[in-house]
From TrEMBL:
Organism: Acanthaster planci (Crown-of-thorns starfish)
Every Fatty acid hydroxylase domain range: 197-319
GO MF term (any one): oxidoreductase activity
Protein name stated in the entry: Fatty acid hydroxylase domain-containing protein 2-like
This protein's UniProt keywords: Membrane, Transmembrane, Transmembrane helix
Keyword DNA-binding set for record: no
GO process annotations (BP): lipid biosynthetic process
Cellular location(s): Membrane
Transmembrane segments annotated in the record for this chain: 47-67, 87-114, 155-176, 188-209, 254-273
Predominant place of localization: membrane
Length: 362
């Protein structure tokens, strides 16, 4: 699964922002050393911004939710502990059931609930106003049924025949690591620290496994299937060969929790964050207030750029060069208004004509 990202400019971006001007001044060529330094500086900035930003947003959302629950429903300070106790007792305190069955139930239900909205729009084309946020506006509107049926079959296969054995493997690994699965939750501050660590290992694991899958010897056997969708839709987040599903989607998110010896409840929260961001990254719509899916959508379109989840390692390795020159790059921000970014940063008409001619020639 891939996480959608929010770029640094997002804090100042909005519908009123004027389209980017094209700089016509001749640029001084950078030396390779200067280019490398600039890549490192950008990478460090991205790590601070993305990891710090994600932790702050998560903390603010949770604090605000807890405050509302306390204010309106009279919940006491240990609200989350009491909720967890209910779940814990629902599974009879059986740790295998909690880790294997519980994790599967939570992730399965969330995947289909979140995708239900995008599937409805992709199949019916309604509500029509959502279509103006489509990134590749001429693709999959509506999505062809045979292609969709094949995707649904593969996704269900992965959820039942890959996820469940993997959950058993994870249970054994968590037992060996001595992960915390008690009735008591860790402190909220510690959860934030762990989420920051998970995010870094997800970026490292996903980037390098994904690049490995693009090696010519691996690509045609294992990764080509996922790239059948050059304009992905939400449900194709885990449309993949089983080996790819394990390497790219299942392993990177569990590296952090295994290293940290995390509590199973934190694991559930983390898996839902990973699932949500993977679905958004593939959904094909750049919607207001959701992280930008432009980078991963570009990866599906062009194949050789934007391998990572956060864009940090792509910057470091220079595998975002085409993306940074593309029309999608200025749009790779958090949309804070209702005007689609394809209107704020319109296509270059000459380039659009070239693209159309290229498509006809194919
Ligand atoms: Zn993908
Ligand atoms: Zn790929």
């Amino acid at each position: 699964m891939e996480c959608a990202t929010v770029r640094e400019e997002s804090c100042c971006a909005g519908p009123s922002r004027a389209p980017a001007k094209i700089d016509t001044k001749p640029q001084e060529a950078k030396t390779p050393q200067a280019e490398l330094m600039s890549q490192w500086a950008d990478t460090i900035k991205k790590v601070i911004f993305i990891v710090g930003g994600a932790v702050i947003v998560f903390a603010a959302a949770c604090n605000s939710l807890t405050w509302h629950l306390q204010s309106f429903w009279g919940a006491s300070g240990d609200f989350w502990n009491r909720q967890w106790m209910k779940v814990y007792h629902l599974f009879g305190g059986n740790l295998f059931m909690l880790e294997v069955v519980g994790t599967q139930m939570v992730t399965f239900v969330f995947y289909w609930l979140f995708n239900a909205f995008f599937l409805f729009v992709d199949i019916t084309g309604k509500p029509a106003f959502i279509l103006k946020y489509k990134i590749q506006d001429d693709q999959n509107t509506p999505v062809p049924w045979p292609k969709l049926r094949k995707a649904l079959q593969t996704v269900l296969f992965n959820q039942f025949f890959v996820n469940i054995p993997f959950a058993v493997f994870l249970y054994v690994m968590m037992q060996l690591r001595g992960c915390n699965i008690s009735a008591d939750l860790p402190t909220f501050k510690w959860v934030l620290v762990e989420l920051g660590v998970f995010l870094i290992f997800e970026e490292i694991g996903f980037y390098y496994f994904h690049r490995l899958l693009h090696h010519p010897r691996m690509y045609k056997h294992f990764h080509k299937k996922h790239h059948e969708w050059t304009a992905p839709i939400g449900v194709t987040a885990i449309y993949a060969h089983p080996l790819e599903h394990v390497l790219a989607n299942m392993l990177p998110p569990v590296i952090g929790p295994l290293l940290m010896g995390s509590h199973v409840a934190v694991l559930w929260v983390w898996f839902l964050i990973v699932e949500a961001s993977a679905i958004v990254a593939h959904c094909g719509y750049h919607l207001p207030l959701l992280p930008s899916p432009e980078a991963h959508d570009f990866h599906h379109l062009k194949f050789t750029n934007c391998y990572g989840t956060l864009g940090i390692l792509d910057r470091l390795h220079g595998t975002d060069n085409l993306f940074r020159e593309s029309k999608n790059y200025p749009r790779h921000i958090l949309l804070l208004g209702l005007v689609p970014l394809s209107q704020t940063f319109p296509d270059d008409p000459k380039q659009k004509r070239k693209d159309l001619e290229g498509k006809k020639a194919d």
